[in-house]
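Narrative of activities, Objective 1.

The group set out to show that a structural description can be obtained from nothing but a protein's sequence at a throughput compatible with the screening campaign. Below is one input-output pair from the validation batch, recorded exactly as produced.
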Amino acid sequence: MSFAVMTDTSGNLPLHLIRDNSLSVIPFSYYIDGKEYNTVKNPDFDAEDFYARIRKGMKVTTSQIPPQQYADFFEPALRDGKDVIFICMSSGISGSCNSARIAAQMMMEAYPGRLVEVIDTRGASLGEGIIALYAAKLQKAGRSTREAIEALRDHVERMFNVFTVDDLMHLRRGGRLSNLSAVVGSVLQIKPLLKGNEEGKIVAFSKVRGRKRSIETLAEYYDKLVVEPEKQIVGIAQAACREDAAKLAELLRRNHPPKEILTVEYEPVTGCHVGPGALALFFESSVGVRSFGN
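Output recorded for this entry:
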């Protein structure tokens, strides 16, 4: 095993997949009334209660991970003689990716001959988590660190991740929405479709009328762009909209059933920014989502 695969809790992976794939995960923290929480120290995260409280006005804040915390996270693997591949949340929505890069340089100076590579997924939730699972697959296959890095960079470019939200207020409040032209939607029942652009920043790239149509449109993108679905884990992330997630999964199985559909609740750090009602789709496509819809 030439390298260790590491990621963060934004990847939204269930605990059994983390364990089965020998992933090391660093936690992001979130704060409610000044008290710190994370899903590692508080594994019994109650998503239904969390998003219900956000709907009622609860304010949740987040913070980035500092470089030294990343350095401490990377060091045990380096001390054991392994390289590190770190699968990171998008640099376009969090400064933590840059912190990880600073830590990577620190650790490579401290451990000459070892490589610490930060893979900026330019995504979050399962758009990051599926990349981490792919890294673990490459590790198990015996690929070298540099071979794995090249394959992962290609995989990032082909990962199609799009989502829709009930209310853009949450993205606007956190400064996560880079183009504000979609704000009219909440009044007219126009639902924006959002993606990460070339810089990994969240942008609205299309609009549809009504929630039902937004779900159908996500499935239409899948039908048009998915490659070799029978070999893929396709991801769905939802924030307090389980019925919508089930409907989307049903539509995905209709024409091009994937090998597996992994459906998860949005973890709290990403979830507090997309807000209750967010529904996201992640799959390997024939065209990179960052260039799609421009």
